[in-house]
From TrEMBL:
SUPFAM superfamilies xref list: GST C-terminal domain-like (SSF47616), Thioredoxin-like (SSF52833)
Keywords: Transferase
Record Pfam families: GST_C_2, GST_N_2
One Gene Ontology molecular-function label: transferase activity
Name of the protein in its database record: Glutathione S-transferase
Domain GST N-terminal: 1-81
PANTHER family: DISULFIDE-BOND OXIDOREDUCTASE YFCG, GLUTATHIONE S-TRANSFERASE-RELATED
InterPro entries attached to this UniProt entry: Glutathione-S-Trfase_C-like, Glutathione-S-Trfase_C_sf, Glutathione_S-Trfase, Glutathione_S-Trfase_N, Thioredoxin-like_sf
Organism of derivation: Ahniella affigens
Ranges in coiled-coil conformation: none
Length: 207
């Protein structure tokens, strides 16, 4: 039995849950990080010494890091739904996954944590202003990419890159910041929302 551990408010947990749903997997979801399911408990620390979610438990196999889990699920269980055996296309999927994690994530950090999560360490107006500017500049990269009319990030085929970046757009839209109009990003996001498996994850309140 596949177990997916982590509270649904976590964007990284939603990446894994959405991927599992697109693949039609049967799994149990345990909301670690909420209520009495503490990340600093001995039982959870044995699964992930970083004390972070998500964690995948598949029989005796344990894996953490959201993109590693998504890649594993596609490689292990995909029957042609998300997998792409074209090496260049697969590399582009990895490119966008890495971009989301290494470029887009740091851009929103202070703005999101300060304005949505109300974290004291990120409430400085200067930090928030700089974060909003960097976030806006980074989103322009996505707008330029989508302006060629492609349906998804890697051509006409939906992939886990769209899951990761789609959830990031959701975060951008839900954070109370000034936003420049990005029509191609918004059209892409609305198309993702029409996917049946996407709806539970693109309608989550962030606060």
């Amino acid at each position: 039995m596949i177990r997916i551990l982590g509270r649904i408010r976590s964007i990284n947990v939603r990446k894994v849950l959405w991927t599992a749903d697109e693949l039609g997997l049967v799994y149990t979801h345990e909301a670690w990080g909420e209520g009495g399911l503490r990340l600093d408990s001995e039982s959870f620390t044995k699964l992930n010494p970083n004390r972070l979610v998500p964690v995948l438990v598949d029989g005796d196999f344990v894996l953490w890091e959201s993109h590693a889990i998504c890649r594993h699920l596609v490689r292990q269980y995909d029957a042609g739904v998300l997998n792409n055996d074209n090496l260049r296309a697969a590399a582009w999927v990895d490119q966008w996954l890495d971009w989301q994690q290494s470029t887009l994530n740091p851009a929103w950090r202070d703005a999101f944590l300060g304005l949505v999560r109300q974290h004291p360490a990120h409430r400085s107006p200067a930090l928030i202003h700089a974060s909003v500017q960097l976030w806006s500049e980074t989103m322009q990269i996505l707008e330029q990419t989508l302006s060629d009319g492609r349906r998804f990030l890697v051509g006409d085929r939906f992939s886990i890159a769209d899951i990761s970046v789609g959830l990031s757009i959701h975060r951008w839209l839900q954070t109370p910041i000034p936003r420049e109009p990005l029509p191609f990003v918004l059209a892409y996001y609305e198309a993702l929302k029409r996917r049946q498996k996407a709806r539970p994850y693109l309608c989550v309140e962030l606060a």
